[in-house]
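Deliverable D5.2: sample structural annotation.
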Amino acid sequence: MAPRPRPGILDIEPYVGGRAEIDGRPAVKLSSNENPLGPSPKAVEAYREAAASLHRYPDGGAGALRAAIGRRFNLDPARIVCGAGSDELISLLVRAYAGPGDEVLMSRHGFLMYRIAALAAGCHVVMAPEKELRADVDALLARVNSRTRILFLANPNNPTGSYLTGEELARLRRELPEDVLLVIDAAYAEYAADAPDYDDGSTLAATHDNVVMTRTFSKLFGLAALRLGWMYAHPAICDVMHRVRNPFNVSTPAQMAGIAALADLDHQERSREHNRRWRAWLADAIARLGPKVWPSVANFLLIEFPREPGRDAAAAEAFLESEGIIPRRMDPYGLPHTLRVSVGLEEENRRLVEALARFTGREVRS
């Protein structure tokens, strides 16, 4: 008899990232929420310099990177743990704090990696309904029971672009049992900072022993290929994470590029300003063509199409691909009538709107 995986493993639908090509041909990739301006030139230079020490193991504790993160965000480096992307940290948190028979709670349209990590650990996944594609604090709290071990909340959420306010986040933490771990995934926090009532969760993580905030270098900092993320939490949680993580989980090139990216404030602001301008432009231009555009504080938009054959999301995706543009279908998130598109370069954004105008049969209005 061939070896069999643990029960639950084969229930996992593999995560499929956004494609970069159409039939082997380069295309306008608007499917993965990447920074269209790319990484900081200083980060690229640091990455290249790291080539001279590729024969050496990296700093297992990522001390210099943690110090740089602490300086940039005014946080205690001792409460920071770095990982090979925030995905790794999410998986490690589940492995450390939940197991077979336990429940992991998330909102209905939350990030798919929470479900994958939970099922891989043998946990039962509980999904709370949302209101208008926003996480519902009351619905989440109503589903907490004695088996709940972790509550994952993406804030802002991917793929909807919505967020809970700081007040709502504080109430969720306040009414959550102390033995339930609240993981606030703030991957898009740098973009959401423009919203006056947004809170990334770092203060909650600093003041409570059951809160973790996770962040990434894949979005604003443009280092998606290097797989670099970090988390902020109580020292006891950090101690647990250091016990279960791999000893050299973050490569030297990733650490050096991350340090340089954090220091390049000009590139960060250019990236934010580009996103502010073109997210608003895209939302307005696409809405004028007929589809519903959901409000977003991230670097992407969720577009809802009619349910009619030939005008629905599947037809829109096929048409855009025929025009050399790759959006992201949201069927795996329970949103089959929608496409998610990243904010791209100016010429990519204009090309997207022009293609959607041809699809909808409407005229682009300036």
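Annotation notes: The CA atoms of residues 220 and 268 lie 7 Å apart. DSSP finds 13 helices and 17 strands in the chain.
The annotation will be released with the project's public dataset once the embargo ends.
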